[in-house]
Amino acid sequence: MENEITITSKRDERVFIHAVPGHYITANAHINYYVGTSDIKHNHSVSVDTAKLMAEYYQHRDIEVDTVLCLYETQALGAYLAHELARPSMMTPDPKSTVYVLGPEYDALGNMIFRDNLRRMIDGKKVLVLISCITSGKTVEKAIESVSYYGGNVVGISAVFSATKSINDIHVNTIFTDEDLPAYKIHNKNDCPLCKAGVPVDAITNGYGYSKI
What we know:
This protein is an alpha/beta fold.
């Protein structure tokens, strides 16, 4: 995409995202930057380094995690994160020996469901919700609600990029924030200044990527 900029993590220069200015539509809002996380989700070395950064938050606070629930193609990152959480360290010398990694299935109405053979990985478990980008937080709210339906308890939220600091009183553990992209703005879809100014929509975006219009 044109005018793409690269933003590197202050904690590890090997971890980075891309951002492109424009007019984009998400499921719940309009935004003026597309945030690209493809390298973190699909590049092995970048994903491993990102998982290490994410794991530090839980290790330093001694937060136990039984299951990493991966939204929008974050299963590879989730597997590396689970590996870090299950590995002994100075802060957590005796961590959980097993950390499950799974992605949700959705029904025709968009409700998150877990088949009977996977329910044991949610029911009674401490769940970490992993997602690439958070704008309004609505998607994560639905995930938290769904986990509760199946008897699980969300103890953490991790994102590559988040414009939201907390969701349902749970702090968002994120690598990048809107402070790394100060011009980033979220607009209500019914009151978007870009739409009012006649700025055409560049693409429809979701956790999987973008589709140009």
